[in-house]
Amino acid sequence: MNAESNIEKQLRESEERLALAVAGTQDGIWDWNLIDNSLYLSPRWKEILGYADAEIPSNFSTFEDNLHPGEKSGVMDNLRKYLNGEIDQYCTQYRMKHRNGSYRWILSRGAGIRDNDGKIYRMAGSHTDITDRKIEEERFRIFAQIVEQSPATVVVTNLDGTIEYANPKFAETTGYSPADARGLNPRILKSGQMDPGGYKKMWDELKQGREWRGEFHNRRKDGTYYWESALIAPVRAADGSVTHYLAIKEDITERKHTEQELRETNLRLIEATKQAKALSDLLARFDPLTGLGNRSQLHEELTQLIEEKGTGILMLANIDRFKTINNALGMERGDELLKQVGDRFRHICGQTDRAARLGADEFAYLVTLNAFESDGNKQQAQLCLRDVHRELTQSYVMNDEEIMLSFSIGGVVISPCEAVTSQDLLRRADTALRKAKADGGNKKTVFEYEMDEAVRERYLIETDLRRGVAARELRLFVQPQFDSAKNVHGFEALVRWNHPERGIIAPAIFIGVAEESDLIIEIGQWVLSEACHFIVRLERAGRPAPVSVNVSPREFRQNDFVERIKKAVSDSGADPTMLVLEVTEGVVIEDVETVIRKMAALVEIGVSFSIDDFGTGYSSLAYLKRLPIAELKIDKTFVQDALRDPNSGAIVETILAMAKHMNLRVVAEGVETQEQAEFLDARAKVIHQGYLFAKPADVDTFFAQGE
Ligand code: C2E
Ligand code: CA
Ligand code: CA
Known about the structure:
Blueprint: H1 2-24, E1 28-33, E2 38-41, H2 43-48, H3 60-66, H4 72-84, E3 90-97, E4 103-114, E5 120-129, H5 131-149, E6 153-157, E7 163-166, H6 168-174, H7 178-181, H8 196-207, E8 212-219, E9 225-236, E10 242-251, H9 253-285, H10 295-307, E11 311-319, H11 322-329, H12 331-349, E12 354-357, E13 362-369, H13 378-392, E14 396-398, E15 401-403, E16 407-414, H14 422-438, E17 444-446, H15 449-470, E18 474-482, E19 488-499, E20 503-505, H16 507-515, H17 519-540, E21 547-550, H18 553-557, H19 561-572, E22 579-583, H20 585-588, H21 592-603, E23 608-614, H22 621-626, E24 631-634, H23 636-641, H24 646-662, E25 665-668, H25 674-681, E26 687-688, E27 697-698, H26 699-706
Parallel strand pairs: 16-17, 19-21, 21-22, 22-23, 23-24, 24-25, 25-26
Antiparallel strand pairs: 1-2, 1-5, 3-4, 4-5, 6-7, 6-10, 8-9, 9-10, 11-13, 11-16, 12-13, 14-15, 18-19, 18-27, 19-20
The structure holds ligand C2E and calcium ion (2 copies).
Ligand C2E is lined by residues 479, 494-495, 506-508, 511, 524, 527, 550, 552, 612-613, 636, 669-672, 689-691, 696.
């Protein structure tokens, strides 16, 4: 009894000790009696799972039922192994279900008491809630993984910079394995190409506990260089003291290269742009063919002269009939000729004058006059133009061949007394040039204000004519032509403009204007159609006769000229053999082959051609012979002068002889007197058209008279 109570006492004491020890820890206690399979679970054991002592029974199924389902078999297996003696220690971790449904991580440690046979009959141990530690561990594991797998280099150094940790990316970029790296100082990476002041600044920042951002130019283990950007931050212990430095770095070599390339490309671009600009400035001011200035350079010089209130003369020079010459020579030699003209200009330029090429064969010449010697009057300008004209018309030599060119020059005086712009000057010089050309070319004309008036007048006419044509104000007049027997041979169709305010306007006033624009096409088309209807009317009246229609060079040059004529004929139902087209030598002078082709196409359907104003142009027998023409019209100036002026008489005689030889019909225009008629009749069989016989009249008047 005594001994027993002694044992009991010992037992109680040890239980009390245990209870005290257990109460001091945060562990739960379990005590399993394998003989009757009773299990003691301490209140703390239950509390870990969220239960009060009385809420769950202390038995084995409380333990077993709350085990994580996925771990139950493992736990039981482990327990069995311990009981069997297969393992020496019972220490294991598992999850158990908390009252709130979550699982807690439990560290379970225990030991068994064996009987004499070595069989465990009692086993007791503790339950420690290690959930927080587990979470912490897991967090660390993930964090470590992130660092290990990071695409950025991560390096941790101690306070003097010695590497304590470097992740695999570090090895990849530097060539130093993590093992190599440990214990190294990152200064081994220095390329030596960086400003040492940069490192000092970094250390200053770090020593003061601040983080530092920057870029390193580093060298790998194999000696190659690379750039990296870095963030270095102090790592602090719980008490705030700095224990380590953490560097996160990124290889930016490629970006640096791209940046460098971009910078270089940029520089090259800037340089190229500069060169292009210089070149285009140069080109913008020069004519590449002749090396003279161009329009914009001339404009600049004129503007400067005007601003400086200078005195001078501006000339515009044109090669007469350059198109024809160019066609004859071919483009290449045409260009060569223009080059020579450019040289000629350069030759006469001297120090102060300027020459420019403004268009195909359009040149400008600017003379600056000394204001003390000259006020830039018209007379001086005329002398100047004459000199330049004389120089320009000296012969040119090309392939040992002498070429003569004629020039038309228009000039304008530049005077400080007048407020003008360079445009005004160019326009005036151009007006003078047009006048020189209109006067037959090879002329030099100085601008006068009346010319400006004329230009304005022409403009007003053009505008009014456009309106008048649309308002159907055109009228068709016809003038009969008579044979030597005084019978009506045919008619010439002549257009009039029946102006609402000015009455009947003669074509001399408006045809020239119309010819300078597309209006002539419309007018010509209208006259042609009216003339065709007139032909039809004559036929219906039983008095068929040929009707002549004037065709302007511009009309003739239209690509669809032949089609237009054919259409007018077929639309009206006129007999094409009654249609005569009067063309001037101006039409023929251009491109003989095309002219012949067009004429031939119309001759084929019966239309015939007449050369109008014959004798006034440049006609040469040579090409006249090649044209399919039926008639010549002697210009009225020759007819009227024939009796007074022996020259004109000779011309008329020559034309008559030539026509006879070539078997051409001759119409004499402007026969006003009996003497004129007789002069002609004495020499050949000539058709007469003139006031002596009949003036042009409108179609209806003619029909009324005829009946
Ligand atoms: P042109 O083709 O030489 O026409 C002859 C001009 O001489 C006509 O002047 C006619 O009226 C005029 N005339 C006829 N007999 C005499 C005379 O005895 N004495 C005088 N002093 N003159 C006479 P008009 O009708 O004023 O035409 C002038 C020019 O206008 C024409 O000259 C022609 O070049 C042009 N023209 C007239 N109608 C047309 C047309 O429908 N189309 C085109 N493109 N030009 C036309
Ligand atoms: Ca005519
Ligand atoms: Ca004529």
